[in-house]
């Protein structure tokens, strides 16, 4: 089933790769270049899934997760952190903030689509 | 690699208690440590670049080869092209990893340069002719403080968040 996915990353290359992979799997994509931009786009349009980087200018990923979880319409929407960070302490912080999962870059495109389908209840 | 973090305020307050020899020794140790870290990060960057470039070329050559077969087996070729482009999309993420490594190195080198600049200013202040001993001492103390603040900033440079050494897929944890 086609989903609307919000991708948030300050790296244009990562946003482009995410869009390519998600669109090739039939999903629609909205891009944001930092946490603040992501929050504004999530507020302007309800999305089915958020995939966000952690370290970004203006607002980081974990702060974005907390901000989204504070909104009634995003209490149960899956949010994945996709980041170079791989420490257990950061993962714990993400889990406590309300993230659905933690993916370490580089992402495997096939695995990413499997995870997207799993957390959104697709296919 | 472990780096000590020295609060700037404490460092500045203790400026008057250091002699030039210990200041220069401390700067030398910090410069050495950070130069070695910068060297390691650049080596890691080169490894990432070489690995990703090889895999990108392989993926694109395979895609190109598959495209050449379109006239006889269109569907199979299109499938192979799609698979290779997906593989390329994983390895193209090297640019984000390398960008983060270079940003860390750039910050480290900027702070090295600041220490070097402040050290030169301090030595000039200490070597200046002393016509008015009181104002000369105050000037040198100010230069010492600026120098120690630059050293503290250098010492607080952290390790890069990027630990990857190739573009192999990262881990996936669902909570």
Q: How many individual β-strands of chain B?
A: 1
What is the topology, as strand order, of the major beta sheet of chain A? 2-1-3-4-5
Largest sheet of chain A: 5 strands, parallel
Mean pLDDT of chain B: 79
Q: What's the oligomerization state?
A: heterodimer
Q: Give the end-to-end Cα distance of chain A, rounded to a whole number of Å.
A: 6 Å
Strand percent estimate of chain B: under 5%
Give unreliable regions of chain A as ranges: none
Major beta sheet summary of chain B:
none
Strand content of chain A is 15-25%
Rg of chain A (CA only)? 13 Å
Number of helices of chain A: 5
Average pLDDT for all residues of chain A? 95
Tally of separate domains of chain A? 1
Task: Note the run of SSEs of chain A as H and E.
Answer: EHEHEHEHEH
Low-confidence stretches of chain B: 1-9
Biggest interface, chains and residue tallies: A-B, 31 and 28 residues
Structure description:
With 123 residues, chain A is an alpha/beta fold. In chain A, β1 (4-8), α1 and β2 (28-32) form a beta-alpha-beta unit. Chain A has five helices and five strands. Chain A has one domain: Rossmann fold. A five-stranded parallel beta sheet of chain A has the order 2-1-3-4-5, with helices on both faces. Chain A is 44% helix and 19% strand. Chain A is globular. By secondary structure, chain B is an all-alpha fold. Chain B has one domain (20-155). Chain B has five helices and one strand, in the order αααααβ. Chain B has helices spanning 8-13, 20-68, 74-91, 94-127, 133-155, and one strand at 172-174. The two termini of chain B are 31 Å apart. Residues 1-9 of chain B have low confidence and may be disordered. Chain A binds chain B through residues 9, 11, 13-14, 17, 20-21, 24, 55, 84-86, 91, 94-95, 99-111, 115, 118-119, and chain B through 82, 85-87, 89-97, 99-100, 161-164, 167-175.
């Amino acid at each position: 089933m086609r989903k609307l996915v919000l991708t948030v990353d300050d790296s244009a290359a990562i946003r482009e790769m995410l869009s390519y992979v998600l669109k090739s799997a039939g999903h629609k994509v909205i891009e944001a270049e930092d946490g603040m931009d992501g929050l504004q786009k999530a507020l302007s349009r309800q999305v089915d899934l958020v995939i966000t980087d952690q370290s970004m200018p203006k607002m980081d990923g974990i702060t974005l997760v907390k901000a989204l979880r504070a909104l009634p319409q995003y209490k149960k929407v899956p949010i994945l952190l996709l980041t170079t960070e791989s420490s257990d302490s950061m993962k714990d912080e993400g889990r406590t903030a309300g993230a659905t999962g933690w993916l370490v870059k580089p992402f495997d495109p096939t695995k990413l689509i499997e995870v997207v389908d799993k957390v959104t209840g697709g296919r | 690699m472990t780096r000590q973090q020295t609060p700037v305020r404490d460092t500045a307050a203790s400026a008057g208690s250091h002699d030039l020899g210990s200041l220069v020794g401390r700067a030398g140790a910090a410069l050495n440590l950070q130069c070695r870290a910068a060297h390691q990060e650049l080596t890691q960057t080169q490894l990432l670049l070489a690995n990703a470039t090889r895999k990108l070329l392989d993926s694109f050559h395979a895609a190109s080869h598959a495209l050449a077969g379109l006239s006889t087996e269109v569907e199979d070729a299109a499938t192979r092209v799609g698979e290779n482009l997906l593989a390329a999309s994983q390895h193209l993420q090297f640019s984000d990893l390398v960008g983060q490594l270079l940003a860390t190195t750039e910050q480290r080198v900027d702070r090295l340069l600041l220490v070097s600049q402040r050290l030169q200013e301090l030595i000039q202040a200490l070597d200046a002719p002393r016509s008015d001993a009181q104002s000369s001492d105050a000037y040198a103390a100010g230069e010492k403080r600026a120098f120690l603040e630059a050293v503290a900033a250098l010492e607080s440079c952290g390790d890069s968040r990027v630990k990857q050494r190739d573009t192999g897929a990262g881990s996936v944890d669902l909570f």
